[in-house]
Design goal:
The chain is mainly α. It is built from 5 helices and no strands. About 75% of the residues lie in helices and about 0% in strands.
Length: about 100
């Protein structure tokens, strides 16, 4: 994670999780969780914006919280409705965009 946006995202995730100490090895683990979370969430709902205050960003933060606790399956169960809602929203947006082109 090198660019400023990504560094800010890591800072925000740490703040959300109340991680106030410096731990380079812990940060490496956290970066991996963030990347895996981004990929997993995008795999479920499509293109996401994790750098602005979006539902996807909130989901990512919660994903990392569950990942740190070793409870990723519980994350998917707990946030199933929100994920389905975002999937439907994306489909509606895509359909609307296709209709405008016709």
């Amino acid at each position: 994670m090198a660019d400023a946006k990504t560094e800010q995202l890591l800072y925000d995730v740490k703040n959300y999780l109340d991680i106030t100490w410096d731990d380079p090895m812990g940060e490496e683990k956290l970066i991996g969780m963030v990347k895996r979370g981004m990929n997993a969430i995008q795999g479920k709902i499509g293109e996401c914006d994790f750098y602005e205050e979006t539902q996807e960003r909130a989901l990512l933060f919660d994903y990392v919280m569950y990942a740190r606790a070793g409870e990723i399956p519980q994350f998917w169960q707990s946030y199933k409705e929100e994920i389905v809602s975002l999937q439907i929203s994306r489909k509606v947006d895509t359909y609307g965009a296709e209709e405008k082109r016709v």
